[in-house]
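Record Thymus-specific serine protease-like isoform X1, 483 aa.
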Amino acid sequence: MKYLPVFLALLVPPAPAAILEDIPGSDEMDIPAFVQTLNQLHRGPPLPPSTKRANVETRWFNQSLDNFDDTNKSVWSQRVMINEDNFVDGSPIFLLLGGEWTIDPSSITSGLWVDIAKEHNGSLVYTEHRFFGESIPILPLSTENLKYHGVEQALADVVNVIKVLKEEDKYKSSKVVVSGGSYSASMVVWLKLLYPDVIVGGWASSAVLEAKVDFSDFMEVVGRAYRQLGGDYCYDLIDNATSYYEDLFQTGQGAKAKKLLNLCDSFDENNERDQWQLFSSIANIFAGIAQYQKPENYDLAQYCSVLRNFDIDDASALSKFVQWRFRQQGCHNPRYQDTVDYYKWAKINHNGSLHLSWFYQTCRQFGWFQSSANKNHPFGSTFPATMYTDMCHDVFGSQYTSAKIEEYIQATNKKLGGKHPAVENVYMTHGALDGWSAVGSDSATIIPQASHCSDVWSIGPTDSPALRAAKERVIELVREWLA
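=>
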């Protein structure tokens, strides 16, 4: 096992030289508009700026490239961050699992999990998921190499980290509790399912459990958030404007829509897939805002006010709002082929981007393709799940047919239990206005008006009674698990 102090330069494996074929921009590629919007839905749970100073050490743990093939002797180094400021020998290990993001020391220097760890003199250990951040097991990120990417491999990595830590004298008698948010909350549940004796309990904030190809319910919940917290006028504005632009495309007036939406010349208004990317990007912009909204700050009400103030005309207001959110000069260009080209480029040219790794997991294990198939939302009907399955095929190869992807997703649910995993001592929470809650556990604690991972912050004066109660329940359960 290798370890380095956190203040030393981080070690990153050099990317092998490669030659791009038939993909533009070999030296560098801009992140396409559509991928930018997806990134907003797959960023780590936000934490408030930390006012606490902590000594966070970065260590590197040797891991097997393939945890389930003893004949494969290849190893790689996984990044793990540790905060032992309040640790006393033999006290618990408070494990925080990283998901589809780059880990950061702030996650183990502030927040509710840090507060609980301090009460128990615990050591905070933050693991980075393979194929994200600095924890890249193998390059390039070809389809062949990405076969080593998956939640089962990542969970086995976590088990090995625990095993190595508990070989140290100070941790030999330490109990382990675990926490995560979003996808890493799912990992909390699955860790307890597959390795029930490794941890004594876990807290899963906004765990997404049921793998699903056509995740059409997501946008319904997002729309509900805008209606409840932004007002009927806001919901109707989005609905009216989206319908207007869809009608233009459907009646042969795509050129007019293209001009009004300030789309680039290369956007093909007659290309169905480009239309899919456009309307999905618009929906994702609103979903990304709603994902981490805080009702006590009136976040959605404020964004809806900004939207309305752009123009009295609904269609014009939506166009100006979308351009504002893209934060770029000139036209924007949500083209299907740009997205495919970018992912193909990233397979050969790893530049620290997280997008490809997560997209592979969705194609291979989870789905969760947010479509417009559910009609109970204001984002139109022009982005089917087929858009995503087509991209899986075009990026990862002909074996990724719609039927094969469906087979992969069903296998995930069969192994991991879908919405009803057989686990004990795992506390699951969801925000009532979190789109991801639609694939969460039916037995989770639901926090009214709350969004994604809304309970990961420290208890504060602006917490609603329900939010505070959910946080206090975590504190109580950890005491019980560690008793």
